[in-house]
């Protein structure tokens, strides 16, 4: 991971240093400050195959990509900017997108654009994607930049969750970087609208990712005794029927997968927390009948909870 931290510089040197940081971490850009302020800024970057993933935090400013910058450094990439904190107004061509936390938008480095960071304290996840990878998948690519994508749309919601997870774990992804980079491109293309010749492939990728997201959701909420297929459907803004279909394609059912995850969590706690009673652990992970828990645990692991703990 590469880190650039303007906060470590003397106050008078921070913004000149920041100009250099943006050009090194991204492409040729021209930042301008908005008023007198105590400037701060930091960029953390990781490379996932051909996609550069950064977390950038800074102060109120405008960042331009001008014609002169394009001539000086004519890299052909898209930047996908996902707002984490604060606001950003992204402008390209005649389009404008005001990003709130959880929203994302694209800009094309081959044309001028302006990012107006209108908050005193803001953070973004930024993904630098080769233009040659993404553009062929987009319908009307020249009209897909500076468009706001939000979690209100189910496809965008899946993409946003995935992008957040990748950005937060980018440092540790390692050998999985190539398939993950491909997933990013496919999900972004599906969200923005894909060309007809790629539609089937992208739809299959999205379906696979949505299936994984549902499975992860069940595992993350296994302790909720009221967890139901309806809750999962509501979270992903899909139908209950579609939840069941996705799990069926993965060789699972909702109830079987939830039971498996609860038993796995109980098994982990039985060995990790010797001072906690078996009943407390069972109830912690969504069981409401100790006798039923013991029978189910024995059936799954081949031994009673007490014996499992003592092994």
TrEMBL record:
Ranges annotated as spanning the membrane: none
Keyword DNA-binding in record: yes
Ranges of residues in domain HTH araC/xylS-type: 212-311
InterPro entries assigned: AraC-bd_2, AraC_XylS_family_regulators, Homeodomain-like_sf, HTH-like, HTH_AraC, Tscrpt_reg_AraC-type_HTH
Alphabetical keyword list: DNA-binding, Transcription, Transcription regulation
Molecular-function GO terms, alphabetical: DNA-binding transcription factor activity; sequence-specific DNA binding
Transcription regulation keyword on record: yes
Gene3D superfamilies membership: Homeodomain-like (1.10.10.60)
Protein name: Helix-turn-helix domain-containing protein
Source organism: Agrobacterium vitis (Rhizobium vitis)
């Amino acid at each position: 991971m590469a880190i650039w931290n303007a906060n470590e510089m003397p106050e008078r040197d921070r913004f000149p240093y920041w100009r250099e940081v943006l050009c090194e971490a991204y492409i040729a850009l021209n930042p301008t400050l908005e008023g007198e302020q105590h400037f701060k800024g930091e960029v953390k970057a990781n490379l996932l195959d051909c996609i550069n993933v950064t977390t950038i935090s800074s102060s109120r400013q405008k960042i331009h990509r001008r014609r002169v910058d394009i001539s000086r450094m004519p890299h052909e990439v898209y930047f996908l900017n996902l707002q984490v904190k604060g606001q950003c107004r992204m402008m390209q061509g005649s389009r404008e997108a005001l990003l709130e936390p959880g929203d994302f938008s694209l800009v094309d480095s081959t044309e001028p654009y302006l990012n107006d960071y209108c908050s005193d304290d803001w953070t973004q996840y930024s993904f630098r994607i080769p233009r040659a990878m993404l553009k062929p998948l987009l319908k009307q690519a020249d009209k897909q930049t500076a468009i706001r994508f939000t979690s209100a749309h189910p496809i965008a919601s899946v993409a946003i969750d995935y992008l957040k997870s990748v950005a937060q774990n980018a440092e540790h992804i390692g050998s999985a970087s190539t398939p993950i980079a491909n997933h990013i491109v496919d999900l972004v293309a599906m969200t923005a609208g894909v060309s007809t010749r790629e539609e089937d492939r992208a739809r299959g990728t999205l379906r696979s990712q949505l299936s994984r997201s549902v499975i992860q959701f069940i595992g993350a909420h296994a302790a909720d005794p009221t967890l139901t297929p309806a809750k999962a459907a509501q979270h992903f803004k899909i139908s209950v029927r579609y939840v069941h279909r996705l799990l069926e394609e993965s060789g699972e059912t909702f109830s079987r997968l939830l039971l498996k995850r609860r038993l796995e969590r109980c098994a982990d706690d039985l060995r990790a927390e010797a001072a906690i009673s078996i009943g407390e652990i069972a109830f912690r992970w969504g069981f409401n009948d100790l006798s039923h828990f013991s029978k189910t645990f024995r059936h799954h692991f081949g031994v009673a909870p007490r014996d499992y703990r003592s092994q």
